[in-house]
Inverse folding.
């Protein structure tokens, strides 16, 4: 299986993610044989691959430094997550032939676990102060309610949503169109460092890969597929956020949009979504509306017997230590008290608490964290 | 028939408009006999009238000065419009047992004709500058497109919509919860004078009647019934505009609402309408959206052969003179040139042009007015 994983890494650097013909070759031949076929210059016609495409892959194969990519990944403590891994979010497989072959992940949280209760908050780069404020508020409020905020790491709405989640000590995932070591936009270098430390940076492209316009669009389907719903906070008529909205709708995810002043160009894309007929998009004005759409905490996530989706035994030792350090009772215990009881440092405790909330073990209160009743 | 009309005037002053039992008595007995029954203190049980109600009517009958009401009406050049009159808007009969028994009307336009292409623009009294601006813009743009703006004459959104229509030299109708000679709110005395001169003031209550809270609500059904659709521009959660919206929906009229910032209390009523499930309310952001909902000019109004709904021969002499003074051709002719050609004064010409636009004969252009192609 290690060969299969290395082959997928090779494909992520040589073939462009989202290319259906590559997915089909891997499905038909396995990743190892797909790589061998491409290296031999063989055109696997049933997959839809063309001579021209195979020639292009050949040229890029010479330029891709697989060992270098894995070395950089190891340096920042990153990892590669593949379908079948415990951390692989199975919702991605709903993308069918355009599902990712792997994800490069940077950060300590468990990708699958944090995305179980996640919402995408996306929008215009050239957002207005109104939109920035709304996105940051929503990011913070989703965090307070134990939901993970997924976005694209762009300027404007995306950045505000991530920052809101971070400010509320919540989980946030940035799905990038570049390597997870590349700060694009450069102005977000500090934000990405913070997300890497407290949340997750995720990409289909290997380290050092730079974003292109098509890559942003290809990336959007992952944002839509990872989450239970997508909220467009502000979008002009040509905003890339509308592309994410389109993916969310095709995947059967909840699609939501914020209203804004009719005089604001940056709300026109949202209003167009809301006016579309038949209506696929729900108007939302805050976290309560959003959670009404994606379902109250736990709905559809907890098992029928009401217990959390992840068995307690499957938690890693630090997470279990944090869970066991939370006293029973309805009142919230402050993070520092839990950290002290678990004999863990504050950052570790915070990230484990967020994971426990995302997986249904705990709930945030005004004063800290409490255990969910076992029901 | 004159007796029937006078009896309805008496009922408008003695019984509260919107009272279903009065409507049923008139339906069963005719207005003259209904008045006689009330004067004799007879309780017409089948109508749902009660002893208590009849006693109340008896007390009010002593206080109502019918001749005085008709005298005041004559002084301001007003009139009473009853079902069956050429000017009676037949859409009001869709209110069934809560249909008005008559309307007191002040102004020169033909009520039925101007309401054929009309939209209600309503909203909060405590409107924000954003809402005021949006309502005034919509009022002016509806006027420019040949549509009549109907509203309730209140402070805030209502007043802005009327003023927008007046500023664009369009038709506007204020449906009041007081006599059409009563300036309520007092701050709108000048606005009502302008509407009386260029548009129409309409009420179910006789001259000198003052508004009460229930009367505002009873009045709202007339605003909804007169128009093809209702636009709520701003409304807080308890706004009376939501009551008008409710009537519009029950009558099968188009119901529309403006979005606004999620942080604005004055948009909360609109957002609630837009979020309701199933969605009865369409989000609109301007005149194009509104006309898309209520149908393009002429749709459903023109006869199947494409000719205007009112035959040319049925126009009054002044209106016909104005129509004949408009030269053929695609370019607009200025109002003053039409007035000169028709040998009429400017105010008369303006009101006739507005009527011709509302009934499908003419269209406003940047430079003036042109005839609609006969098709």
């Amino acid at each position: 299986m290690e060969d299969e994983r290395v082959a997928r890494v090779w494909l992520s650097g040589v073939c462009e993610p989202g290319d259906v013909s590559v997915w089909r070759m891997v499905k038909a031949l396995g990743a190892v044989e797909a790589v061998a076929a491409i290296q031999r210059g063989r055109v696997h016609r049933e997959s839809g691959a063309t001579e021209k495409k195979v020639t292009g892959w050949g040229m890029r194969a010479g330029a891709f430094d697989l060992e270098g990519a894995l070395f950089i990944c190891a340096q920042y403590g990153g990892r590669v997550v593949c379908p079948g891994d415990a951390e692989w979010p199975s919702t991605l497989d709903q993308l069918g032939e355009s599902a990712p072959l792997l994800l490069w992940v940077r950060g300590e949280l468990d990708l699958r676990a944090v995305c179980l209760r996640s919402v995408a908050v996306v929008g215009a780069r050239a957002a207005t102060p109104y939109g920035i404020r709304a996105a940051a508020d929503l990011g913070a409020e989703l965090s307070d309610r134990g939901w993970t905020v997924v976005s694209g790491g762009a300027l404007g709405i995306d950045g505000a949503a991530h920052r809101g989640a971070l400010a509320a000590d919540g989980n946030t995932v940035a799905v990038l169109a570049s390597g997870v070591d590349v700060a694009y936009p450069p102005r977000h270098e500090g934000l990405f460092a913070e997300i890497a430390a407290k949340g997750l940076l995720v990409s289909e492209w290997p380290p050092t890969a730079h974003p292109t316009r098509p890559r942003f669009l290809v990336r959007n389907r992952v944002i839509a597929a990872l989450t239970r719903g997508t909220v467009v906070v502000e979008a002009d008529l040509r905003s890339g956020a509308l592309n994410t909205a389109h993916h969310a709708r095709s995947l059967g995810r909840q699609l939501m949009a914020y209203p804004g002043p009719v005089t604001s160009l940056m709300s026109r894309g949202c209003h167009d979504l809301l006016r579309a007929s038949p209506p696929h998009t729900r108007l939302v004005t805050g976290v309560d509306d959003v959670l009404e759409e994606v379902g109250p905490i736990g709905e559809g996530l907890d098992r029928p017997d009401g217990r959390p989706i992840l068995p307690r035994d499957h938690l890693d030792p630090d997470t279990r230590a944090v869970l066991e350090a939370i006293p029973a009772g309805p009142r919230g215990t402050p993070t520092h008290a839990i950290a002290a009881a678990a004999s863990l440092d504050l950052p570790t405790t915070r990230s484990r608490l967020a994971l426990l909330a995302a997986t249904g073990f705990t709930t945030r209160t005004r004063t800290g964290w409490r255990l969910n009743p076992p029901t």
User: Anything to note?
Assistant: The CA atoms of residues 319 and 352 of chain B lie 5 Å apart. The interface with chain A takes residues 130, 133-134, 258-263, 267-268, 271, 274-275, 279, 282-286, 289 of chain B (CB under 8 Å). The two ends of chain B are 40 Å apart (CA to CA). Residues 312-371 of chain B form a domain with the Arc Repressor Mutant, subunit A fold (CATH 1.10.10.10).
